[in-house]
């Protein structure tokens, strides 16, 4: 399932709740008015996550906004959490798993850190979610060794792929490059 198909599925679910959704050019990505049963979205910028977020608001009939940017309200937190869970369930039903977590984030448009946190909470004992963070416990060197040991022949190292695989911050890019360089230098000495 690609991004457009996922958007269509979520729009269908919103409309099943009695909300009429109309595409238009917006400053925001999407807005739903649960009292008037109408909503609008910007098809050029909306993501499945944003529409799923609005679907959750429609599901609960949320009407109260505390302010223009009320991301800390209970309703917003609930909408974010349940949208991530909904999208993850759809992704898994379509054959996805935690091995392709970055693909899930790319297709669904979910916030990465929040998704990791929420999915760890709900699937702590599930084997698939454990694959998101294979071995990182503060030792970048062990992760680098683990990473390169998975290759028969290593022509190049894609550092960003490495960081994503081990759920590491991109801030560690320079340190990872140094670690791989040290391992390469040691390997050259061993021959």
TrEMBL record:
It comes from Lactococcus lactis subsp. lactis. This is Phage protein.
